[in-house]
From TrEMBL:
Name of protein: Xyloglucan endotransglucosylase/hydrolase
InterPro entries: Beta-glucanase-like (IPR000757), Beta-glucanase/XTH (IPR044791), ConA-like_dom_sf (IPR013320), GH16_AS (IPR008263), XET_C (IPR010713), XTH (IPR016455)
Membrane-spanning segments: none
UniProt entry keywords in alphabetical sequence: Apoplast, Cell wall, Cell wall biogenesis/degradation, Disulfide bond, Glycoprotein, Glycosidase, Hydrolase, Secreted, Signal, Transferase
Subcellular location field: Secreted, Cell wall; Secreted, Extracellular space, Apoplast
E.C. designation(s): 2.4.1.207
Sugar-modified residues: N113
GO BP terms in the entry: cell wall biogenesis; cell wall organization; xyloglucan metabolic process
Pfam families: Glyco_hydro_16, XET_C
Signal sequence, start to end: 1-28
One function term, GO molecular function aspect: xyloglucan:xyloglucosyl transferase activity
UniProt entry tagged with the keyword Hydrolase: yes
Origin species: Carnegiea gigantea
Catalytic machinery residues: E105, E109
Length: 295
């Protein structure tokens, strides 16, 4: 078992990536080893020998965690079970982000609702500090009944968000058209739960009902088929997760037509909001990427 893929990012010539030397390492994620609880103290708990992490929100605080590692590209999966019952006002977030004012970020945010009413999956993509790329979806299942898999594919050409393996949104590298793409900043994986009653549920009309607190969301089976940044080496090494059949396929994956067709059909059937259709919000014209791609 020793092939290693080293991804070297020459900081002097951004965008020039050298591949050398492949290593395949079996690697099983453990919340104890691979994550830090960053806020909320004992509202965040690692259980079952590092296999399960729960986050809770009460009236005084939410809670959160992030990976110890920073990644530069990856196929990253997390299994999440959301707050059940009356979750109105709560926001459970799972995202990739770099740091600083011109940061990159890829967001999954789950907006709670009254019992029996549907969650909204709110997504956004920031490149060099600029977001405003919200797309929202209903899910085709009850996300509070079981764990479901939420994934991000992030490579130099493409970002794709998946729900249980179904692609729901893509963001292409259109740097050649002058649109920034997340490519030169390493990101950590974050999870958190917080009170978003000002905006989350039915546009902020439904507030959090604290009699139902604490609100608990659960995370398990984190898998990062990813390139891990090492500041010592000034490079990132790409390690596939255990039991991955595709190894490094994700690194060169492009947007094929079946992925585009699936995204189109998900967007037709489940989309709640699309910034690319919000002409009132962008009176000077839709963002350029909206006019360049149609999926
Ligand atoms: C990434 O590239 C952009 C320009 O393409 C630059 O403004 C930014 O400072 C770069 N960030 C890093 C961390 O190198
Ligand atoms: C909550 O339920 C209402 C009524 O079904 C729906 O309009 C709304 O989109 C749902 N989700 C959120 C997050 O508000
Ligand atoms: C909050 O939940 C409790 C318990 O279900 C309920 O009795 C109460 O009416 C709710 N409060 C509001 C403002 O909806």
């Amino acid at each position: 078992m020793s092939e290693r893929l080293i991804y070297i990012m020459a900081s002097s010539s951004l965008g020039i990536l050298l591949l050398s030397n492949l290593i395949v390492e079996a690697w099983a994620a453990s919340f104890t080893q691979d994550f830090d609880i960053t806020w909320g103290a004992d509202r965040a708990n690692i259980l079952n020998n590092g296999k399960l992490l729960t986050l809770s929100l009460d009236q005084s605080s939410g809670s959160g965690f992030h990976t110890k590692n920073q990644y530069l590209f990856g196929k990253i999966d997390m299994h999440i079970k959301l707050v059940s019952g009356n979750s109105a006002g709560t926001v459970t977030a799972y995202y990739l982000s770099s740091e600083g004012a011109t940061h990159d970020e890829v967001d999954f945010e789950f907006l709670g609702n009254l019992s029996g009413q549907p969650y909204i999956l709110h997504t956004n993509i920031f490149a060099q500090g600029q977001g405003n790329r919200e797309q929202q979806f209903y899910l085709w299942f009850d996300p509070t009944a079981n764990f479901h898999t939420y994934s991000v594919l992030w490579n130099p050409q493409l970002i794709v968000l998946y729900v249980d393996g179904t692609p729901i949104r893509a963001f292409r590298n259109l740097e050649s058209k002058g649109i920034p793409f997340p490519k030169n900043q390493t990101m950590r994986v974050y999870g958190s739960i917080w009170d978003g009653e000002d905006w989350a549920t039915q546009g902020g009309r439904i507030k959090t009902n604290w009699t139902a607190a604490p609100f608990v969301a659960s995370f398990k089976s984190f898998k990062a088929n990813a390139c891990i940044w090492s500041s010592r080496k000034g490079a990132s090494s790409c390690k596939p997760a255990r039991s991955s059949s595709s190894k490094f396929g994700w690194l060169s994956q492009d947007l094929d037509s079946s992925t585009q067709d699936t995204i189109k059909s998900i967007q037709q059937n489940y989309m709640v909001y699309d910034y690319c259709k919000d002409t009132n919000r962008f009176p000077q014209g839709l963002p350029l990427e909206c006019t360049l791609v149609n999926y």
